[in-house]
């Protein structure tokens, strides 16, 4: 049996209301009516999930690369994470990871269960890819920072050895030369 359109409630409904509309319409909808409602609920859930996925993608991009000025989307004193270098990248890692994970939590907060099932697969992949990128950036910048510090130590040791070369104490000179050699060895092992 078909239900006449006049017997259905005359109000606008969002995707969360379709179960209520079905109940109000009664069991007279039959299989065809339920199938139509299911398809509509799926379309609405897909639209909701797509909008949320696009929003989360934009937030992640802005967090990693910055807004139009290359700045953090909500804190103009910080650059986008990928513009943070050396120790700043290491220090900013936890904040970037927490914010990126928070984008997902915020997106699903009021999302319908049906939309969330559609959203989860792409959103979780997007979040995990971003978190992997944050981790790789932090490790690269940490390695660059360590190499920079090691280079500075080696250069300072060579300068100290040169300054001590005219002194009576050859042990000082050798200590500085050994420090420079140790730092060069550390850099060679790091670089490969």
Features:
192 residues, single chain, disordered N terminus, mainly alpha, rod-shaped
Structure write-up:
By secondary structure, the chain is mainly alpha-helical. Helices cover 73% and strands 0% of the residues. The protein is built from five helices and no strands. It is rod-shaped, with a radius of gyration of 30 Å.
Low-confidence stretches: 1-10
Helix/strand order, N-terminal first: HHHHH
Q: Number of helical runs?
A: 5
Let me know the largest β-sheet: none
Which oligomeric state applies?
Answer: single chain
Number of strands: 0
Q: Proportion of β residues?
A: under 5%
How does the overall form come out from the CA principal axes? rod-shaped
Mean pLDDT: 78
Distance linking N and C termini = 77 Å
The computed structural class is: mainly alpha
Radius of gyration: 30 Å
């Amino acid at each position: 049996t078909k239900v006449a359109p006049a017997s259905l409630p005359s109000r606008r409904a969002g995707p969360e209301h379709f179960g209520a509309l079905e109940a109000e319409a009664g069991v007279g909808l039959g299989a065809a009516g339920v199938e139509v409602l299911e398809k509509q609920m799926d379309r609405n859930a897909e639209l909701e999930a797509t909008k949320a996925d696009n929003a989360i993608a934009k937030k992640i991009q802005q967090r990693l690369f910055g807004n139009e000025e290359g700045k953090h989307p909500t804190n103009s004193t910080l650059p986008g994470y990928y513009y943070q270098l050396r120790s700043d990248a290491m220090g900013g890692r936890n904040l970037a990871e927490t914010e990126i994970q928070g984008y997902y939590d915020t997106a699903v907060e009021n999302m319908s269960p049906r939309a969330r099932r559609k959203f989860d697969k792409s959103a979780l992949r997007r979040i995990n890819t971003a978190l992997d990128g944050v981790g790789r950036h932090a490790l690269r910048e940490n390695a660059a920072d360590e190499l920079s510090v090691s280079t500075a130590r080696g250069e300072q040791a060579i300068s100290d050895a040169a300054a001590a070369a005219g002194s009576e104490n050859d042990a000082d000179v050798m200590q500085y030369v050994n420090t420079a050699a140790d730092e060069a060895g550390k850099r060679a092992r790091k670089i490969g």
